[in-house]
Amino acid sequence: MSQKFQEIINSDRPVLIDFFATWCQPCKVQSSVLNTVKENIGEGARIIKVDVDQYPAIAAQYGVRGVPTLAIFKNGELLWKESGVHDVNTLTHLLQQYI
């Protein structure tokens, strides 16, 4: 996964990473928000989910201490990262800045 993850974040198209856990209730809320964000931005950006229990090394590498944590990458560069649940408008606006 680590090699594939690097390929994904090195894209010239912005990528929003959702670091989540299956047992996390706020993560389930965030997931439904991200479905709407994806509809809003279409092909302008990618949204990828990373289960921190399955890929703890990736979570640790990017300093994920709690879930959900969202991060935006473009060309391998971390542009934004924040923990907690975020609303549709905030995330849509954030991604549109990087498209």
UniProtKB/TrEMBL annotation:
GO terms for cellular component: cytosol. GO terms for biological process: cell redox homeostasis. CDD domains: TRX_family. The active site is at C24 (nucleophile), C27 (nucleophile). Gene3D superfamilies: Glutaredoxin (3.40.30.10). InterPro entries: Thioredoxin (IPR005746), Thioredoxin-like_sf (IPR036249), Thioredoxin_domain (IPR013766). The record marks Q25, P26 as: Contributes to redox potential value. The record marks D18 as: Deprotonates C-terminal active site Cys. Signal peptide: none annotated. Pfam families: Thioredoxin (PF00085). Keywords: Disulfide bond, Electron transport, Redox-active center, Transport. This is Thioredoxin. It comes from Chryseobacterium phosphatilyticum.
